[in-house]
Amino acid sequence: MRILCLALSITLLAGCTSGPRIDDRYTAIGQNSRVQYIVLHYTSTDLPRSLRLLTGEEVSSHYLIGDAPPTIYRLVDENRRAWHVGDSQWQGRTWLNGTSIGIELVNQGYYEGPAGRYWQPYAPAQIDALIELLEDIVRRHQLPPGSILGHSDVAPQRKVDPGPLFPWKRLADAGLLPWPDAQAVAQQQALFAKSLPTVAWFQQQLQRQGYRVPEHGELDEATRNVLAAFQMKYRQARYDGEPDAETAALLMVLGGPAR
């Protein structure tokens, strides 16, 4: 009898601690993934220190991809928020930790040398692993083109990663993001060389892309930083933040959703 009472008590306690009973027979059509973006970073350090930093209390990322060998580490479940992007904005959405997946690539970033700033190239096998991971994430979350961003896109006033040596074109060739047609860019560049648009035009076009940019029509430091972030992605040979005919042509050809 005592054993029966004990078993009954355990059963009742288990029922009390299991939470409410949920009926899952119905599913709403009107829904989508909480994930709207994927944000790419470099770690600025080697693999051992990257793992220590990203598994600590202050900063984290959903995935970390090593460089040699290019192992993919899952550090945070995709259903949970990682602390990888901080103060950020894209397409009017702010503080993107809650709506993005963060991927860190082991890469030293840059250092200042006698000849200027030196950037570390990315290992081809590391980018192969990244593309495979991105294809899987994009498929599972049904993300539209343009959802893969750099940290420098969403925080251009304070971040430059993944840097000017990140091979965005390889991602475009894999069908993961839009890329401007070279012939169309050349045609537009010839037109803009005759008459360059105003700074206000550049600000409007950058905003259409998704960037947070001033709208006052002045070429201030904040606007230059956003221009440099755009150029670092689509015109990596020169990312000086200067509004010029080629940058205008790239913006025109890429277009962007009106908001």
From TrEMBL:
Hydrolase is among the record's keywords: yes
GO CC terms: outer membrane
Keyword NAD on entry: no
Key words of the record: Cell wall biogenesis/degradation, Hydrolase
PROSITE patterns: PROKAR_LIPOPROTEIN
Reactions catalysed according to its record: Hydrolyzes the link between N-acetylmuramoyl residues and L-amino acid residues in certain cell-wall glycopeptides
EC id: 3.5.1.28
Domain N-acetylmuramoyl-L-alanine amidase: residue ranges: 23-163
GO biological process: cell wall organization; peptidoglycan catabolic process; peptidoglycan turnover
Family annotation (InterPro entries): Amidase/PGRP_sf, Amidase_domain, NAMLAA_amidase_2, Peptidoglycan-bd-like, PGBD-like_sf, PGBDSf
Top-level division of the source organism's lineage: Bacteria
Stored Pfam families: Amidase_2, PG_binding_1
CDD domains (UniProt xref): PGRP (cd06583)
Gene3D superfamilies: Peptidoglycan recognition protein-like, PGBD-like superfamily/PGBD
Enzyme class: hydrolase
GO molecular function: N-acetylmuramoyl-L-alanine amidase activity
Family: Belongs to the N-acetylmuramoyl-L-alanine amidase 2 family.
Protein name, as recorded: N-acetylmuramoyl-L-alanine amidase
Source species: Pseudomonas borbori
